[in-house]
Design a protein that fits this description.
The structure holds 2 protein chains of 2 kinds.
Chain A: E1 2-10, H1 13-29, H2 34-55, E2 58-67, E3 70-79, H3 87-90, H4 104-111, E4 114-120, E5 123-131
Antiparallel strand pairs in A: 1-2, 2-3, 3-5, 4-5
Helix pairs in contact in A: 1-2, 2-4
Chain B: H1 3-9, H2 11-22, H3 36-55, H4 61-74, H5 78-100, H6 105-149, E1 153-156, E2 159-165, H7 170-186, E3 191-198, H8 204-219, E4 223-227, H9 231-240, H10 253-263, H11 271-287
Parallel strand pairs in B: 2-3, 3-4
Antiparallel strand pairs in B: 1-2
Classes of the chains: A alpha+beta, B alpha/beta.
């Protein structure tokens, strides 16, 4: 059983905060612990910042997952940006084209339980899922 | 009788119809928190302004501006103004047409134009003023936030604390860096404690800025200690794979401060201890 809950458009830097707060609230409602809430908020922050930095514009959407008894939160970050040239490089720690720490995407993969990255010239889609521990 | 005179002469009637129709749809979401008296009073004021602007052949700008400001300060929605004016327009046209009993199309257009000519400038002015007031509030708050965003507190000689509360964005990160570096030089600081207890999320960007700031502080010859790292933040930092090993970190400001005292070769001595010492000495003297 799936249900699309909400989505946040990322255009300005402050939209990152909006997306993060929406995600944090949802994860709270779904019963995630405080550490997982922080993980989810941080992952959203990374994904939203990537959209803002590289694609300028995009969207973060949230989906509540009910695979009872498991409950989870699915985060999808979509943009129509230039796409990622080297998919294996971005998943390596320390790789960055913007002078950052280069820990964003590999970090998100470690913060979440499931992670998927698809990218071509038409844009990028990152899907990440976190399951709540019962 | 011309249009203006007709409306003015019957302004009481039109206003009372307006008040009835006004119904305050736009306030419905708020109505539980706004008293009826308040709404009545504002409606009354609103009507006064509309009528007096017609009387004087032009809007009294000051009154209009005051009214718009009042609506903003009350936190009432934009819709209160636009809806109010729309209803007033409709009621006036209806009233005039009723009075003249006209079926003539041209006359109808003449009445509508006359009333629009009177209401439209009012509407424009009120809307502009409303949004200007709103923008003013936002820019003031932004300024106030900026003042709060990167405070540097010298707690004693050589030790300074920078408590960070809230979200850190790029602008704020720049401000933090500037304040930190100029403060370190100005206060001749040896140890700076950056407290991130109030920072909700530490992602790679925030961590990057903190690392850069700490590195810059190190270049100035001072030490930077990161304090207030909550357990969940510690876990996310590890998950992200961020290396914060170049500078000391502590869980709380208290522990960080103790380390800062050690580094600057200071000690906090309790007065009670001294008293006891003195008493001991006195005792010892007494025994002799």
């Amino acid at each position: 059983m799936k249900e699309t809950v909400s989505s946040v458009v990322i255009k300005k830097e402050w939209d990152i905060v909006g997306a993060r707060q929406a995600g944090r609230q949802l994860s709270q409602e779904l019963g995630f612990g405080s550490v997982d809430q922080a993980r989810i908020a941080t992952a959203i922050s990374e994904l939203a910042r990537n959209i803002y930095l590289y694609a300028k514009e995009g969207e973060i959407s949230f989906e509540e997952l009910y695979d009872l008894p498991k409950v989870g939160l699915k985060i999808v970050a979509r943009d129509k940006g230039p796409g990622i040239n080297d998919l294996s490089a971005v998943m390596q720690d320390g790789y960055s084209t913007s002078g950052g720490l280069g820990a964003g995407l590999p970090g998100v993969k470690r913060l979440m339980d499931e992670f998927d990255l698809v990218s071509d010239e038409e844009g990028t889609k990152v899907t990440a899922i976190k399951w709540a521990r019962p | 009788m011309n249009l203006k005179e007709l409306v003015l002469e019957n302004s009481d009637e039109i206003v009372s119809r307006w008040v009835e129709k006004q119904g305050n749809h736009s306030l419905q979401d708020y109505s539980s928190t706004i008293s009826n008296d308040m709404i009545k009073q504002m409606n009354h004021e609103f009507a006064d302004i509309i009528i007096s602007s017609l009387k004087e052949g032009g809007a009294n700008l000051e009154n209009l501006d005051d009214f718009a400001e009042k609506v903003v300060n009350l936190g009432w929605p934009f819709g209160y103004i636009t809806e109010g004016l729309q209803i007033f327009r409709t009621e006036s046209i209806k009233f005039v047409l009723d009075q003249q009993g006209t079926e003539n199309k041209e006359e109808f257009i003449y009445v509508m134009d006359g009333i629009n000519e009177w209401i439209d400038p009012l509407k424009t002015r009120l809307m502009n003023q409303y949004s200007a007031n709103w923008n003013n509030i936002i820019s003031l708050q932004k300024l106030a936030l900026e003042e709060l965003s990167a405070p540097l507190i010298p707690v004693m000689d050589e030790i300074t604390v920078m408590p960070l509360v809230g979200t850190i964005d790029t602008d704020r990160a720049k401000l933090i860096m500037e304040n930190l570096l100029s403060g370190v030089v100005k206060n001749r600081t040896d140890v700076v404690l950056i407290d991130i207890t109030g920072v909700p999320v530490v992602d790679t960007m925030v961590a990057h800025h903190i690392i850069q700031a700490a590195e810059a502080v190190r270049l100035l010859g001072a030490t930077c200690i990161l304090v207030g790292i909550r357990p969940e933040i510690a876990q996310t930092i590890v998950n992200l794979g961020i290396d914060l090993s170049q500078f000391p970190t502590k869980s709380s400001l208290k522990k960080g401060f103790e380390t800062a005292l050690e580094i600057t070769d200071k000690q906090i001595v309790s007065n009670d201890d001294k008293k006891e010492d003195v008493e001991e000495i006195l005792d010892a003297i007494g025994k002799e």
